[in-house]
Amino acid sequence: MNYSDLLALYQLHLFELLDRSRAIHQAHWPEAEVQLCTLLSIKTGGCSEDCSYCAQSARYKSGVEAERLMSKELVMERALHAKANGSTRFCMGAAWRGVRMGTQRFEQVLDIVSDVSKLGMEVCVTLGELGADEAKALKVAGVTAYNHNVDTSPEHYPNIVTTHTFEDRLRTIRHAQDAGMSVCCGGILGLGETIEDRLKMLEVISGFNPPPESIPINALMPMPGTPLAENPQVDPLDLVRMIAVTRIAVPKAKVRLSAGRTALTDEAQTLCFYAGANSIFYGDKLLTAKNPAAEKDLHLLKKIGLSTQLPEPSMSAPEANPCCELSPASSESSCQSIGCC
Known about the structure:
This protein is α/β, with parallel strands linked by helices. It has 11 helices and 12 strands. The protein has helices at residues 3-10, 14-28, 72-84, 104-116, 132-141, 157-160, 166-178, 195-206, 236-249, 266-275, 294-303, and strands at 33-43, 89-94, 122-126, 145-147, 182-184, 187-189, 214-219, 254-257, 279-281, 285-286, 289-290, 307-308.
């Protein structure tokens, strides 16, 4: 969906926007279900990148200590715990610039993925940049989806990260899609961006061909020691608007209410679900930031009448639309008609 159409939606009276997003949500997701996902940092801290929101960068004095890659035994223990608590997707994140074939750490990750994939949950990883060969190896090992957020608009991106480019991120997403993995790709609100930046980010994501399987919408949790430590909190109604526009722009994607939920009341979270969110990160921790307690999440979902989604560990990646050129090959959308991709 192009920027001008996204802006027209965003500027609607909030109730009209919610009416539209709710109708689209019910048409594509009538089951009133929410996917529970658990995110585990399997390698924390010491990252060489300079993402200005991230406490795991070695460039900032955030108090996050660099750790080695977790053992397979410990990861499996956490995965089994997540499954027992109702999670249907297990996401593993590593604070690296990227991974390369033939390295010991990548071989260890492949071994971990192979075992986790046998537990009957969807398996998602976020390991930084991927080449084509690394993406194929992850798919063979059992990865269901690869997470690689674009974070913000192409124009604002250099203000947030300088050690890699927006195009680098799109290249990794293309490799993941070409390997047959689903893509989980979203962004972060609160990085000092404008409304235009938020919508241009969504313009890029909604133009992916095939479309992303899931779209995390994060609200910045300012981390001490990072350049964005003093940024103000995102207005909850701005978050609701962004979720609603995302639901309309990419109807078949899961829209994940991600980082920042600790700052939301139950009422604000409920409005996010009404607007079109149907996935959450669930558990005690979200990489290095707090996450609402599992019992509280389950209580809220029960109170508002939402059930939990079953896993689809063997789900197929979304299919590419043959009317469009494959995207993302660049930050420019290749599709001229709204809704083509």
